[in-house]
Amino acid sequence: MSTGRIAILIDGGFFLKRLPRLVPENRCDSPGKIVACIRHLCRRHVKLLTDSDASRWQQHVYRIFFYDAVPYDGKAHHPIDNRPIDFAKSRIARDRLELFELLRKERKLALRLGKVIRDHDWAIAPALTKKLLRTRNWAAALDRLELDDAGASADEPVALSLSRDEVRSLIELRQLWRTLDGGTVSLGLRQKGVDMRIGLDIASLTLKKQADTIILVAGDSDFVPAAKLARREGMEFILDPLWQQVNEDLFEHIDGLQSGLKRPVHRPAADSAPAVATNE
Where in this chain does the record put each NYN domain (predicted)? Predict the structure, then answer.
């Protein structure tokens, strides 16, 4: 059981993506309710480590760090919907900024913000891209449409004899392209500076001895170098992947696996992780 100071680091992008899978929709459908979920997560982590009175859990906390990125505020033209988009006025951007304002008012909480940059132009969803690339051979029948411009009228009909398989392929090709809508393409936006801030804070907390235990709420293995540093310096390092499965080799780089939110009632079999697992 930990009795020293506890620092809780939350990867905001990961947390906000996982939260709807862990709590009912009516508990996370507004910035205020999301803040309440963050508070609940932190309180439960502290109680699991200290078995302290729930009303006095914050006395064990050095600080809570929430990492996210300022929403993209640029403009673009949607290639399928054929409409302009002002990302700064989107509901996602407004809700995220409101969330940041509420978090700034929370006790012992520090907001660490990177930014979102435009990394590349519009792209089709990867799964659909693979399907479209496989249709390249379906259009082979169109290779027969080689007109002699000098001897043919622009209004003259063109006859094309197709086999049943070629007709079927062209129909499938047409249906596949018709499935493309506004949601099948996305602008290439990427967070920048978030992982760096997490790593720097882990190093700073460790080397300055500002805490005795670090709880990291994250879902990838980018934290491993920082976790190694923290554990070498005597820091207790606990990971909360919010019930997302983690690789077995990560256990040698952490001191425990612990969840601050309850296990989801309905979840895929591959999306589970033990509630508590200690690395002896």
Answer: 190-239
Euclidean distance between CA atoms 147 and 258, whole angstroms: 69
Q: Rounded distance, CA 60 to CA 48, Å?
A: 12
CB-hemisphere CA count at 13 Å for 232?
9
Total domains, the chain: 2
How far is 268 from 112, CA to CA, in rounded Å?
32
pLDDT band at 274 (very low <50, low <70, confident <90, very high): very low
pLDDT digit string (tens) for 147-204?
Answer: 545 455 566 666 667 778 777 877 887 887 777 787 788 888 888 889 999 999 999 9
Domain match, 87 and 203 both: yes
Token pair for residue 173?
């090709």
Q: What are phi and psi of 261, to 5 degrees?
A: -125, 155
18 with 119, same domain: the answer is yes
Q: Which residues are CB-neighbours of 7 under 8 A, at least 6 positions away?
A: 61, 62, 63, 64, 65, 205, 210, 211, 213, 214, 215
CA distances from 4 to 52, 223, 235, 238 (A): 12, 22, 11, 14
Rounded Cα distance between 193 and 177, Å, is 37
Residue 70: which domain range? Answer: 6-124+187-278
How far apart are the C-alpha atoms of 101 and 272, rounded to whole Å? Answer: 33
Predicted TM-score of the model (pTM):
0.79
Q: Are residues 201 and 71 in the same domain?
A: yes
Both 110 and 95 in one domain: the answer is yes
Over residues 105-124, the pLDDT tens digits come to 999 999 999 998 888 888 88
Which structure tokens are listed for 108? 């012992």
Residue 270 amino acid letter: A
